[in-house]
Amino acid sequence: MWRILLLLALVPGLAGAGPVPPADSLRVAADAREAQARFERVRVFHAPWGQWASSGPCDERIGRFCLRYSSEREDDLTPPYRPPAEVEAVKTARAVLDSVLAEAAQLHPGDAWVAGQRTWYRGEAGDWAGALTAARACRSPEPGWCSLLEGYALHGAGQVAEAERSFERGLAALPPEERAAWLDLEPLVELEVGQALRRLRGEERAFFEARIWALGNPLFLAGGNALRTEHFARHTAARTRTDARNPHGLRWGDDMTEILVRFGPEVAYERSREPTFVLGPAPVTGRYSWDAKGVFPTLEGILMATEAAPEAFPAVVYRARSRHATPLVSRIRRLEARTARFLRGDSLLVVAAWEVPAPPPWDTVPAMTVDRVALFLLEGGRAPPVRFDFAESAPEDALPGGWVRGVGTARVPAGDWWLSLEAVDSVGGRGWRHREGSRRDPLAPGSVEMSDLLLLAPPGLEGSTGTQTDGDRLEAHLARALATDTLDAGPVEVAWEVYGDPPDPDRLRFVLGVEREERGWFRRAGEALRILSPLEPVEIGWEERVLPPDDPEAATPVPVYFRRVELDLSGLGAGSWILRVRLPLPDGGEISAETRVVLR
Question: Of the given ranges (101-105, 191-195, 230-234, 330-334), which has the lowest mean pLDDT?
């Protein structure tokens, strides 16, 4: 029966069809589909043999597919998986496919399938300039398709901001249901965030989604929002694969779309040696990019972005529900950094000290040059970000162990901010970031407040002894700001400021205390059984004569008192400690600030 129907469809007049395309045109279109299928067969035939069995436990099952993460370790010591180079037979088949697709595109510029395959395969081979040429040659009448292909190629080429604009044009032309599916964040985020999304409607959900997109952006230095463009690029890729042969030899389904959107395209394939008694293609294992990792913040980070600690915004999330990367760098790692905020009238002086770790042992790029460092601040945790470049205030400074460090400052209005401190090695393709909330209101009239605590490297033996001097100012010591709270047991300086009229017109009375942040199980059990008494913090107090502030801020209505003191931590044991500075007030209250240090 199907042969008769096919015959009717090809004979004009019998099926009411319009003009039949020339035979050569039909042949080229058929050749394009056959060349695409042939290439995928050749790819699989020459794929290396793998050790993965098609049976066994799965870390996650999506439709017909079993996902496993057992080869992933949460450290920088394991060399990343890199796909093997294509053999010559595959390269030849790919060149033939590109030639056939180019001929088909010339005869059928309006063929959406041909335009999609041509753009996809050139991008897969790393020829993003060629992919962009193919996308811009698209003349498909399908709403938005050519713009989506152009966005896909621009994202792959690293032109994130341009890709955003192209994707927006394409999305605007899609039918409402399809556009809603492309914008859906639930498949990407962790389960608790997805549950929160499902409880929201209308403007509340739109606000929550906008915050997730903004805070999840892997690297603002890439320009635009690489998370959104990567997401749309994956949906575009899935659409090109819908009516094309794939290495698994299976009909494309919703499960394959979900996997591609969550984890990106497969970068390599392996054949299974396991015998199969089921008719059909032999089992093929797909490998995904090792560089792509989880990038979304925790639910706490999303809901309380301007107050959350750095732990709510990890640079790498292992075994995440979805994985993303940025086209600017191959992988993003944690940047060692400390920030402190100091009031300047109605503004904040944000001090950010940073250190970039040396490359892991498996890194094959010998030299490391941090050529771009910037601080991005999102007011209230919402985009667009305000950028502060640290190029001048953060000169490279090679330290023992291959670290690079710097200190930068930014002046912003007081209020609720979310900050992202980022560094990039453009040559080596490396990236680092540190993110946290920053909430600080202006000084209330008649009140007294204390700044954050700033840790300073101890002065040299030939320099200052660390004693407070008249006219001392914070800005004179910023170069010594420490970027890490992990220290050797020894001397360190702690600096802070007090704002407003002092509680005592003649003296400031400070109390500095040190206490354990964590206690071992033996002590916790002993305290619970009342065998051991709770540990009390070790404190020391002193008084200082109040001196008129001698700095540029002295002319402002709010006095600023800068203080620093040198501590010797060598008497403390290894572990986590809390340093706390308190200033008792006459009414029985107090103001205080604290910071965490980890002693090796």
Answer: 330-334
Q: Where are the domains of the chain?
A: 142-244, 444-600
**Alpha carbon of residue 371 to chain centroid:** 19
The one-letter amino acid at 72: E
Print the SS3 string covering 37-60.
HHHHHHHHHCCCECCCCCCCCCCE
**Burial (Cβ within 10 Å: 0-12, 13-18, ≥19) of residue 30:** exposed
pTM of the model as a whole: 0.85
Q: Annotate 218-279 with DSSP letters as a single string.
A: S-GGGSS-HHHHHHHHHHHHHHHHTTS--TT-S---HHHHHHHHHH--EEEEEE--S---SS
Closest CA to 265 of 289, 294, 232, 284: 289
pLDDT for residue 365: 67
Residue 593: Cβ within 10 Å count: 20
Q: Is residue 574 within a helix (H) or strand (E), and if so which, with residue range?
A: none
Burial class (CB in 10 A: 0-12, 13-18, 19+), 229: buried
pLDDT at position 556 is 52
- With tokens 């008249």, the residue in question is 470
Planar angle of CA 333, 337, 341, nearest 5 degrees: 140
Where is pLDDT greater, at 228 or 356?
Answer: 228
Residues 6 or more apart in contact with residue 294 via CB below 8 angstroms: 314, 316, 317, 318, 319, 320, 321, 322, 323, 324
Q: CA of 451: how far to CAs of 234, 439, 495, 512, in Å?
A: 45, 12, 9, 15
> What DSSP designation does 584 have?
E
Helix, strand or coil, per DSSP, at residue 84: coil
Out of 337-346, 467-476, 561-570, give the one with best mean pLDDT. Answer: 337-346
Percentage helix, strand, coil, to 5, in the chain? Answer: 30, 25, 40
CATH 2.60.40.3880 fits 444-600, yes or no: yes
Rounded to an integer, the average pLDDT of 523-528 is 53
- Dist. CA 284–CA 271, nearest whole Å: 5
Give the DSSP per-residue string, 139-165.
---STTHHHHHHHHHHHHTT-HHHHHH
The sign of the dihedral angle between the CA atoms of 470, 473, 479, 481 is positive
